[in-house]
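Q: What does the assembled structure look like for these inputs?
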Amino acid sequence: MTASVRLEALNHWFGTFHALQDISLEINAGEYVTLLGPSGCGKTTLLSVLGGFIDPSQGTVFIGHADMTRVPPAKRPTTTMFQDYALFPHMNLRDNVAFGLRMAGVAKAERYRKADEKLDLVGLKADGAKRPHELSGGQRQRVALARALAVEPEVLLLDEPLGALDLKLRRAMQDELKDIQRQVGTTFVHVTHDQEEAMAISDRIVVMNAGRIEDQGPPSRIYREPASLFAADFMGEMNHIPAEVEASVAHTALATLPVATLPQGAATVCIRPEEIRQDGEGLALGQATVREATFFGTFTRAHVTPVSAPEMVLVAHLPPTDLPKPGAVLHLSVLPEDIRVFMKEIA
Amino acid sequence: MRMAAWLYLFLAFGFIYLPVGTLVLFSFQEGTLPVPPFNGPSLGWYADVLSDDDVTDALLHSLLVAIGSSATAVLFGFLAAYGLARHVLPGSALMRVLLIAPLTVSYLIVGLGLLIVLNRTGVGLSLITAGIGHVVINLPLAFAIIYASMGAQHENAERAARDLGASEAKVVLLVTAPMLAPALAAAFFLSVTLSWDEFIIAFLLTRFDITLPVEIWSMLRSGLSPRLNAIGSVVFLISVTAVLMLEFTVLRRRRS
Amino acid sequence: MNVATGTKLGWGFVAPALLWTLVFFVLPLLVMGAMSFATLEGRSLIWGFHLDNYIELATRAYLWRAILVSLEITLTVTVVSVVLAYPLAAIIAFRVPREWQRLALLLAILPFWTSYVVRSYAWLLVLAREGLVNQTLMNLGLIAEPITLANTRFATVTGFVHFFVMLLTLTIYANLVQLSPNYRRAAMDLGANAFQTFRHVILPLTLPGIATGAFLTFVLCIGDYVTPQVLGGNNELTIPQVIMVQLGRRADFPLASALAIVMMLIVTLAYLASARWLRLDRV
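A:
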């Protein structure tokens, strides 16, 4: 089962703290959407509003075109996967997974059959009789997923589900989650602060900061053409170069760069480390001295100081075979399409 | 459903405060019977009871026994907790069980046992014997509270002190005890409130000098009177003040 | 983890508490045990292994009835107190706003700090023939004559329940509040209403806490002298009352000791019976 989600002009206050500011969002049925942002940005609050655990101060929540703003969690076609899994410790796995079906009045044989189906889906078919404390963290998380899916929700809400797992396990679970979502077709809304995770699993990423949506779109678009400085900075690494915009050029300490028509004034030029080139292609950025270079497996990460701006430190990704010594001089350049400019926001 | 919950809360609180409310109300009774109708308010009974030497003596005795037995219980409990938490001793698990064991036995039995031994050995009953009984019931509590508060971070501070040349006694006095101040204070206050209110052990193990609960008991024998209401309200007030003091000083500080 | 700074020193620290417990707790219990097998001949105490006291306990109606009465009262009090306290604790834990919970709890247990003796006396006031309850019922026209409420088993049970409801509210609240709120949220999320959430999730998870509270109630109730003595009248006596009679009038230490031993046995049996629930089934 699956449904679309529409949030209209959501605002929520905790006391005087404006936790959600004018949130409007549309999610298509069957999409895997990630709410991405730092701690305190409001992503978990938004998820709680979606799940019915918080009544928003203002705004409307539509699930599948029906107004669900004040509908309690029990009656909403959503289920939530909690960060600490919240598996019932006194029940075995099968009873845990079948719980929602039992609440819906499904007969024992039927609900056990469905529960076993879901346990099979997450790869724990033979473990129905075990108790949660006998499982590892990763296994518990799968049971939590099975339990949430057993009631066939239209929207599945995941609250930082992979936070407690180690890196390898996390990567494996990301693939599994994506896989299961494709199989089941349910709309998934996934909260995380890990932008790599967001990029790995999402159809669409919604970047949030301080209660607002900064940017939303497919991972590749957000990475390559972020809509705001915050989004640019949050996704991967970014070099910040102060600039003055005048007519269609941005004056920086390194070079004067052509930019699309922008208002005049102070701005920040952003270039990704892997977009700083040494092959001379594109616009010249002048010479820079290497401060240090570290081997990172698939690339060499170098901190460089431009000759024309000795107080600045830029990060550049060089081919892994290059390992320049401190003091080496590089000639930097960048392709015009890899330059992003963001005007300084007047607070 | 929501209404039912608040109704239950209201009824429950009504039940809980019924006796205390009646007690305090009729302590201000103008008249000789602490029952309706209420005439008053009058402070006469308070004056009567607080000027009664037997009562004020008993109050003093209660304080002496409470503070004395609690101080002993906390001191011994602290030493034992330090000894068991910081040293590897054979049979320490058994010792812990033994030290906590008195908590599982009814006060009447503790008092009875001591009474029998004192009687057979010819030792007279006094505030001291009552105090001994109170240490028996408070020591396990003090030990348990302090033992539970001795954490790893305390141990590291002690190691650092030893490393810097402090002797064992200095470590205990200057590092361990001050760090455990909240637990020590909590154990002390808890012991005092328990001892202050304790009846049966004090009843069995005192003779001439008695504590306040025992004095109240003998007053009870003479029947219903607002005197009892007055003294009961005074006891209540003192206890509540002590508890609120504990809540707002020791516990608050621990949390911040 | 333990710093072995000399075992001798370690013993030195533990010694005072250990000695105190051995001399003033263990020794008296042992003497009392021995005393229960002693017998009185006139005024002289004869030590030895006599079963007279235990036989008397089993055969003399006055004595074994006291054991029965104690058990009946204690079990009634335990059940009623748990049933009344649980909803109160649950309401404070789940319905009262978080910032007010501590205050609500404190208010609920404040009467705890009236002296135990005084509190029983206060109930006597309330339940007496001229007391508040009777006066109110008569003023409301519900009864014509005052009914005997004090000096009855009802009064004893009421006095006990009053005390233990406060104690149990405290312990059950502490238990409820350390349950992760996500258990309730998950249950509700999966479609459970309030009652179902309670029955299938909250209750099973709090059962160990309830069992502990109930056991504590049982132990404290069965060993209490004050409440039945003040409120119960003298028609039926409990074990502690009978013990005190043996001590007072007859100075019959052996019989009193035997009664005490029997009381300890009952408590031990109660512990064994409830141990199944007391053991936390790995949460």
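The CA atoms of residues 33 and 261 of chain C lie 7 Å apart.
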